[in-house]
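Bug: token stream looks shifted between consecutive jobs. Job 1:
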Amino acid sequence: MTTLTLPEFIRRLPKADIHYHLLGGVRLNTMLDLARKYQVDLPEAEAKSYYRAYQTPGGPRKGGIAALTFLYQLMQETADYERVLFEVAEDAHHSGVKYIETFWNPSDVALPYAEINDALVRTIDHCQQVFDITIRLIPSINREKSPEDAVAMVEAMIAHPHPYVLGIGIDYKEHQAPVENFWKAYRLAARHGYKLTAHCSEFGLHWRNVETGIELIGVDRIDHGYSIINNPELTAKYAALGIPFTVVPSNTYFLQQWPKHDEWRVKHPIRAMAEAGLNIIPCTDDWHMHDTHTSKCYQVMVEDFGFDVYSLKTMMLNSLYASWLPQNQIEQWAEEWSRCFDELFAQLDYQPKLSTKELILYRREHNGKK
């Protein structure tokens, strides 16, 4: 029987990434091509400063938010967004991803919302045919802009609805712009049936930002949310409620806080969140900017954070149940993906970090025994 290494096993798993910034998936060569197209002076060394894979110790380092800001200013035509989304789908396909919910920031785009959204929708249909990958859209508030800009974004969504547009989010630097500043936009979106999510407590900021997102704004899930573990009472409450937290193993803030790998892997709040019973879902955030991909995120959960291989099945399914797909689609994929996991698990040549009791229970489940 064919055996699989852990990386190959993970790559072949069907996966969903429900926290993915569209322009965080821009390849380096694409950024350079776009700069040439618009005659923007962008030396390769400067372009590389946006990408973790090319950054050197002590060298220039701009990071993901700076990359998004630069790219939104750079990209001037719908064809640019079509190219980026197609390449995102291509990369995700090679990592075994079957479903993506991707953020983009309409208030940062040079063209009207409807033009970009129509271009993205066309590309989604094309990618479905070419890569058998499903992509859906989450217009996202740039919290560094005004609450009125956020309301205008939602009004554009309402004026130009499309079934591929599932809800709204909020991102960029949170320090001076907590989610409650944008309550009007969220309330308007909710009244028109859109789902809600929010980046909260991403950069070590206070757990109150998570509490506000859930209790006041009424979000369906939290993006990041790491500081919630500093409030055990709320952590227990949200664990019991099953609130989804899309967590990012490659989060820049914690890599900078604990640059030593052994310290990072032990102290990263993802571990504590899982131990507290929170519903955590590994996601990529900014794929190329963070030098990661969906399979790598899952692998980090096992090899760095100490989760057993079987727990990946739970995370895989939780990513579906936390998604904004129709319930019948979720149930269908959950059954198919579970079966795929079990078949691949049987071929895995890896010592899973399961206790003997847990392994016996899993094998009984896999074999259909009581």
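Job 2, same session, no restart:
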Amino acid sequence: MSELAKELEDFINRIPKTETHLHVEGALPYELLTEMDEERFPEIPHFRKPDFRYPNFVEFENLLIDHAVVWFNSAERYHLACKRMFEKLVSLNVKYVETSFHLHMIEFIGVDGPEILSAIKSAAPEGLEVRVIGGMVRNGYTDVMRPILDKLHEWDELDGIDLHGQEWLDLENWTPPIWKRCRDAGKIVKCHAGEFGGPEKIYEALDQLGSKRIQHGVRAVEDKALVKRLADEGAVLDVCPLSNEKLQVFPSLEEHSLRELVDSGVTCTINTDDPLCFANDILDEYRALAQRLGFSKSELAQFAKNGFEHSQLDRSSKSEYIRQIDEVLAQ
């Protein structure tokens, strides 16, 4: 490793970081599956190899679900997986995480939602602030889920909500009222948009859901007026560059829109999305931005600062982590 590479590695390791776009089920530590059944789950499966690319979102989604349901069958299993997951984040100098769990697992495994929520939060180690987001799909307003989704704003321990899954599906009428109730209750309101759907899905998130936290949003560059609006209104894109490459949102990372978004004044954070499926961690993301997209250390530092600035931490904690980033940058 060259001296420059060592210097970059040291910098990425030392700066405090956030993860604000991380799915619990998609972050299941793969080694837990291997420990359970080594024959069924070999140490390096084909989809975790560096050159693997998912042919489409549905195949990715099916693979994720097929692996996640093997493990997640109880609140205790959520706790055990999150304990391992959070310990790894601490080792990478992550200080704050917003992680979403798939609310429809309540219907699938028959476990109470607040029980899962408590299991996740109780796994948080010292030194890591955890906020939990409830994720739902666009066509998930079933007879079982309807009374649950309608009361999300009353869940004290739930920090926010997100709309994820197959982005190209229509936004159904039940969705905006839930987002409004949760927004009025002071919860984070997110929406996956601008990944497999175009700019129109980002407009939908902004105008119909009132969400200024967009998960991905990378196809905003197809509409220059939208990019300007995102910058002017201070919207935040929680971007996952390696996920976008693995899912072929862009042909390669080198063709990613992140540089254009940043240069246009759009606020972005850097995250991992679904490490179970992509075999990535937050250090990989920062390395790739420096080595393959030419982002400088000061720009990497700004991504980290953005994560803290738009977190739910108190002002003194935000200021302290931003001070630490500046201190490492100065050295």
